[in-house]
Design a protein that fits this description.
By secondary structure, the chain is α+β, with helices and mostly antiparallel strands. About 30% of the residues lie in helices and about 25% in strands. The chain has helices at about 40-50, 50-55, 65-75, 125-140, 155-160, 195-200, 220-225; strands at about 25, 30-35, 80-90, 95-100, 105-115, 145, 165-175, 185-190.
């Protein structure tokens, strides 16, 4: 939609850059924290050069070096572009979650990567995405999250379906593999704020969501407020 003219008076000054929003949240299986360049080393670099990860993310071009990887991590402003590390409860950095936010429309797009094969199928991807989703809806005020894996990324697609996310579309020949010239299908799954609220109300026992700045009853209070909204129907038995 075209922007209306004179949205700001002609004497308005540039707005200051938003302050980065850095988080550290812990669940039942893992911890997610805003990733910093100093968090990564050669062990984690191999993720970005792993053929399975590169295929899932449609990464082409030469292998990435450690300096390039650290520079990549440093490009995230943690406002519109967010990168979180996924740590096991034993303290091992096991993966990453990328969150891109359209601030105007209060919409986020999420993608997760679990690096080492031994950490896959451990529920880390689903738990890390849950923590990021809760952060988005409970703390960032977003109205919708979308998940857009390549159709051939079976692990990501299975995770979306296991999480009972609503499939909104199947985009045919939507992405290009620059190395092979192959056009790739992409799927679109989503969760709206209203769907999130209904899920939260339906929990018999809320899973953990802990971290700096999060009061012990923070989530429970939010759920009670959802349940008390006008016109809200109780969850189906």
């Amino acid at each position: 939609m075209p922007k209306m003219p004179y949205a700001d008076p002609p004497w308005s000054f540039p707005r200051p850059a938003p302050k980065p929003i850095l988080i550290d949240r812990k669940g039942g299986r893992c911890r997610v924290r805003s990733l910093r360049p100093e968090d990564v080393d050669e062990r984690h670099l191999k993720w970005m050069n792993d053929p399975i990860v590169r295929a899932g993310l449609n990464i082409t071009g030469p292998a990435m070096g450690l300096v390039d990887f650290k520079r990549y991590v440093a490009t995230f402003d943690h406002v519109a572009r967010n990168l979180f590390g996924v740590w096991t409860l034993e303290g091992e950095l096991a993966g990453m979650v990328l969150l891109e936010i359209d601030r105007r429309h209060k919409r986020g797009s999420v993608h997760s990567v679990i690096g080492d094969a031994e950490n896959r199928r451990q529920g880390l991807s689903a738990e890390s995405v849950r923590l990021v989703a809760w952060h988005c809806f409970l703390e960032r005020g977003l109205g919708k999250l979308s998940f857009e894996p390549l159709a051939r990324n079976e692990a990501a697609v299975s995770a979306c379906r296991a999480a009972r996310l609503r499939q909104e579309g199947h985009l045919v020949a939507h992405r290009l593999n620059e190395r092979t010239g192959e056009r790739l299908d992409q799927l679109v799954f989503a969760l709206t704020e209203e769907e999130f609220k209904r899920r939260m109300i339906a929990y018999e026992t809320l899973p953990p969501y802990e971290g700096p700045g999060v009061a012990p009853d923070f989530v429970a209070k939010a759920v009670r407020s959802y349940a008390g909204e006008p016109g809200r129907k109780p969850p189906a038995a």
